[in-house]
Amino acid sequence: MKHKIKQCETGYIQTKVGIIPTDWKVSTTSQCFDRITNKVEVIKTDNYTQIGIRSHCKGIFIKEPVTGEQLGNKRVFWIEEGCFIVNIVFAWEQAVAKTTKKENGLIASHRFPMYKTKSNVLDLDYILYFFKSKRGKHQLGLASPGGAGRNKTLGQKEFSELKIPLPSYGEQKKIARILTTWDIAISKQQALIHQKQQLKKGLMQKLLSAQIRFKEFDYDWKEVRLGDVTFNLDNKRIPLNINLEV
């Protein structure tokens, strides 16, 4: 049954996923995704490299290689490039990502289902940004019933029925492109900050060890005992009018 929609201010409507433009629609993930399962026929003597997904939108990481014998009876699947992938154990913590060429030839267990976006219906970067948002996190939580931690597992049925706001395919791509541009700019700024922090550490080391001196301060440094230039205030009451200048 279709959910009820009430009219908001001009050009917007209230829906179960919040207020959206009137030319957007509400779709379920099953209408936008196809589940991808390419099962690995494990050979005991071969080596396999598994992936994991960090919580809080921090992406995919690669685990140490293991042999087929070490995998045992674990159900594993080949990673396919260009898919939305989720860690069902920590989906409620936004353990979501997209697969790229870097993951070709790697594998994931059944706890990392992959979904291919339907052509000209859903943009992969758009849906990834949606599930990185506060609203998307709420949706992932709704599809992860149970208690805290490992008991809050993403249900496949619940996930397939999640409702998402869907602009036109062209607008999805533009939204994703703008957010990607900002991510790149933020990443560059963070790299610049890190570089300056490293420069500061080096400068601090040189200044505090007299490797760099100022012309107006050309006298020699001297070595003193810390106790000669400080007060020990442990377990002592200090009068409010005490003068601590040295």
Structure overview:
This protein has 246 residues and is an alpha+beta fold. The protein has a domain at 6-167: DNA methylase specificity domains (Adenine-n6-DNA-methyltransferase TaqI, Chain A, domain 2). Helices cover 29% and strands 20% of the residues. The chain contains six helices and 15 strands. It has helices spanning 29-32, 68-71, 124-132, 134-142, 156-160, 169-208; strands at 6-7, 12-15, 18-21, 25-28, 33-36, 47-48, 51-53, 60-62, 66-67, 76-78, 84-86, 96-98, 107-109, 114-117, 163-166. A four-stranded antiparallel sheet has the order 5-14-11-12. Strands 1-2-3 form a three-stranded antiparallel sheet, with no helix packed on it. It has a two-stranded antiparallel ribbon with strand order 4-15. A hairpin with a 4-residue loop joins strand 1 and strand 2. The longest helix has 40 residues, at 169-208. It is extended. The mean pLDDT is 89.
Provide key terms for this protein.
alpha+beta, 29% helix, single chain, 246 residues, Adenine-n6-DNA-methyltransferase TaqI, Chain A, domain 2, 4-stranded antiparallel beta sheet
Describe how the helices and strands are arranged.
Blueprint: E1 6-7, E2 12-15, E3 18-21, E4 25-28, H1 29-32, E5 33-36, E6 47-48, E7 51-53, E8 60-62, E9 66-67, H2 68-71, E10 76-78, E11 84-86, E12 96-98, E13 107-109, E14 114-117, H3 124-132, H4 134-142, H5 156-160, E15 163-166, H6 169-208
